[in-house]
Fold this protein.
Amino acid sequence: MKKKKSPVLLVLTIAVFVAAAGAVWFVWDHFTPSKERMKPEDYFAIENEDRFGIVTEDGTSKESGRRFDGEAFLPIAVAEEICPSLFYDEDDNKLIITTPSTIESFGIDGSSDILRQDGEEVFISQTFVRQYAEAEWRSYSGPDRVVVETVFAYPVTETAEDAVIRYRAGIKSPIIADAPAGTALRSLDADADGNISADKIEGWTHVLTEDGYRGYVEDRYLEEEITLKEDEHTYTQPEYTHILLEDPVSLVFHQTTSQAANDALDRTAAGMKGVNVIAPTWFFLENESGQMSSLASASYVRTAHGMGLSVWAVVNDFDGAVNSAASTTAMLRSESARSKAISDIVMNLLMVGADGICLDFEKVSADTAPYYLEFIREMSVMARNSGLVLSVCDYVPTFTKYLDRAEQARVADYVIVMCYDEYAAGSEKAGPTASMSFVERGIRDTLKEVPREQTIAALPFYSRLWTTGSAGNVKSRAMGMAEAASYIAENAMSTAYDGDAGMTRAYREGVDGKYEIWPETAETLAQRLAFVRENEIAGAAFWKLELAEGSVWELLSGFISGGELTVSVSGNSIG
């Protein structure tokens, strides 16, 4: 008689089998690479036979190109990315092309060889873009696509064995292309020196193939060595030239609000040394039509030239009759307003014999930034044709990441990074105007986009007296160097070194709250100038003349001559 199997044992056997099968499935599902392939038409966003894919170093465009009457046209946004000289004014449906010496514009009509519109989409002729873009173009079929190269020196990695390129980093991501052993791939995780980005995904390398596939390869399939490849290119368009001073720039801003201030230059600047550029605040935005009020003065220029100073007139958007981001935006979005402002500024400066322009627009939002950049491009044409230096003031990149400083540097002569107002009027917390780390970061971040020989660091001649009330309310007022020193002495403020700021903090308790100052002195200025010199940038600028104290002039004399950065009040030598 057969012994019956226990139901419990049967259930346990089945459970073990199911568990084992589940474990096998889990391992297979999680650790077996996917063989799924993405269709090339989907990867290159090609919807129909009239469309073609577009690839740049920044990636495969989600916007495909379009053929009109058999001719290739690019979406406007892609064309502007490839060729910064192009700007599409969507308000006027007009394309503006800025070269080093000319400005041309083109409208849209149904038969245009340059611009075509289909619904809300606007396209520009690829042939036209190629005339102005510093780029190499490669065309491929299967599917129809164009690869545009604008960076000609780049790091390359090579496959050590047969590999696949996946859409995302991960073995379950679909395959977009094969990379047989020995395939050279542009490494997008390394810089030109072969240094690997901190953002690299562990175990995977971000790559771009010569024929336009951008994806990820497992590191285990790649050679360890990264090499630099330099491609020849045939771009022959005129290059932007720059007017650069031979000596280090030592610029002092001079806040002028009246003709009387212009007339007092010789008295205001008495004793000033170590300066080769003075920048008076002469032009202010008066309305959204581009009208600028002007304090330009021929007698001021004659006096300044007699003192050995070049004159770069400051143009701002906040001291005139209008003072808002909305007004600045309205002016910058209008081609006629931009043109009027530029013409009036340049004509006034040529009449009085000035040497340059210093743009200081501080009401520019992220949305307005492309129009401001076009304003700078258009200004650069007239400035260059007139022999005027063009400089552009930007707050540190931490505050204004959306400003394209690389493009500013391409078309303008200098980019001035304003390394102050770390804690500004309206701040909810007391702090230094420009801590050492703030200045260093501002300069380093700017140098990621701007060549050293075009970078100027603007430093403060002022600090703020902060009052923090018992309820935590904070208010402040700006003080010049001498006034701050006097206030600290007269009020017997305690002082202590602030390691985070890299400078001294003065403080006292009062019946109505706490008072604090992080004073800017000749010693703090010497430290900042030592960093400027160490980074071999074009020079320094200082806000503003009226707030300086006498000891800084010997310091600036050493800076501009390449000598010691000596602080006369203490006898210390830094740098």
